[in-house]
Amino acid sequence: MSVRKRTWTNPKGVEKEAWVVDYFDAAGKRRLKTFTKKKDADAFAATAKVEIREGVHVADSASATIEEAGKLWLASARAAGLERATIMDYERHLRIHIVPFLGASKLPGLSIAKIRAFEDQLREADKSTAMIKKVLVSLGTLIADAQERGLVARNVVRDMKGRRGSGEKRQEKRQRGRLKIGVDIPARDEVKALIGAISGRWRPLFLTAAFCGLRASELRGLRWQDIDFEKGRIRVHQRADRFNDIGRPKSHASERTVPAPPMVCNALREWRLACPKKDTGKVDDAGQKIMELDLVFPNGQGKIEQLNNILRRGLHPAWITAGVAVNTGEVDEKGKPVLASKYTGLHCLRHFFASWCINRKEDGGLGLTPKIVQERMGHSTIALTMDRYSHLFPKDDDADEMAAAERAFLA
Fold first, then answer.
1. Using one digit for the tens of pLDDT, what is the confidence trace for 106-158?
2. Closest by alpha carbon to 113, among 70, 165, 156, 65?
3. How far, in Å, CA of 7 to CA of 15, rounded?
4. What are the structural domain ranges in the chain?
5. 3-class SS of residue 157
6. Going by C-beta distance under 8 Å and a sequence separation of 6 or more, which residues neighbour residue 36?
7. Share of the chain above pLDDT 90, in %
8. In this structure, which of 38, 224, 238, 384 has its CB flanked by the most CB atoms within 10 Å?
9. What's the CATH architecture for 188-367+380-390?
């Protein structure tokens, strides 16, 4: 491998120069790569030498652009059977954010500096911090797919994420991620007021959300056969996505069995008698439609209920009836203030379930350990559970208790 200077005169008579890295790849094929500056050529030569020795080097001419790799990545996602919502997000990130800025770039030409510049471009385009993070995750997944295809040697996005941020910054991020009672998590009195305000089809749904911790998609996909009334258990085995497609839960950890308190079981038993049945499209010998009881929380036709209907028709009015609302600053035709639900999503009841599990001592029970809370929530890692809820766990190790433990140990 050599680094040499090349000079030439262009048609206009102007003398030009560049630095060329002349080398043979792992297959023995001669490669040339040109740089404007010698330091860039030296840096490439040093990196390429190591990559060739390890058998992972990919020349630019043997690689692909980000746009080309993106098409292969989406094809892989479809072949893997990923959910339609996930593939649509990938397509949107690629089309709107990645291709306009990086589409023509060759994969081996990406560097941490280029990725940082890409982040800056997204910020200048008024993209939110959350969106930038999602786009970078998609870009990292795209490059990982290209790695498996032998189109690039390293994943600069994941290298960058691994090096970025000190321990203090990570700790600060964790502190920001912690949820607050009364802001993100409904307080106990607020949930009690909600229970008193709900009735009809919404009562079993919101009780199950608050005291079993199921996600909205899991509630919408819950089947009667997944409820064991005798043992008081609910098995989370499937979910309904935003397109109303039924599929597997969010992750392997999401497939779980959670206990259902008597209040939930009683509400579900009553609801089962009135629950709409799904039309199978068949008829019996008498010509009557054959109806099949399937989903626990369907719409009026026994089909999958839309999430926005649950929120708009059920949860938000219930919060307002319960007195858990905020003033929007607007007034109606009669001059009265317009109120809106304080908690906008169904996920707040899932957060309440986590806090209730952690602090059940207040109800005369035993607070659950972090590991059990993780399993009940269906979190993939305990780090996720602790980042959000660790501050809610009771702190019993005060000075008096430690002194008593010390005396018992020394006795």
1. 888 888 889 999 999 999 999 998 899 999 999 999 999 998 888 888 898 98
2. 156
3. 7
4. 2-57, 66-164, 188-367+380-390
5. helix
6. 18, 19
7. 47
8. 238
9. Orthogonal Bundle (1.10)
In this prediction, residue 289 has a pLDDT band, given cuts at 50, 70 and 90, of: low
259 forms bridges with which residues in the sheet? 233
Cα dihedral value 71, 77, 79, 83, nearest 10 = -130
Q: How far apart are CA 241 and CA 250, in angstroms?
A: 10
Lowest-confidence range among 20-34, 285-299, 346-360? Answer: 285-299
Best CA proximity match to 86, nearest among 304, 243, 305: 243
Q: Do the strands 227-228 and 246-247 form a parallel or antiparallel pair, or are they unpaired?
A: unpaired
CA distance 268 to 265: 5
The band of 406, judged by pLDDT with boundaries at 50, 70 and 90, is low
Q: Residues 136-157, buried b or exposed e (16+ Cβ, 10 A)?
A: bebbbbbbebbbeeebbbbbbb
What amino acid is encoded at 171 in this protein? Q
> Is residue 21 within 8 Å of 48, Cβ to Cβ?
yes
Rg (CA), the chain: 29
Phi, psi (deg, nearest 5) at residue 363: -100, 15
CA-nearest of 107, 109, 135 to 121 is 135
pLDDT of residue 299: 92
**Amino acid occupying residue 396:** D
Domain 66-164, CATH 3.40.50.2300 — does that match? no
- Pairwise CA distance, residues 98 & 140, whole Å: 11
Q: Which residues contact 207 (CB under 8 A, 6 or more apart)?
A: 195, 198, 263, 264, 267
Of 90, 83, 78, residue with least CA distance to 244 = 83
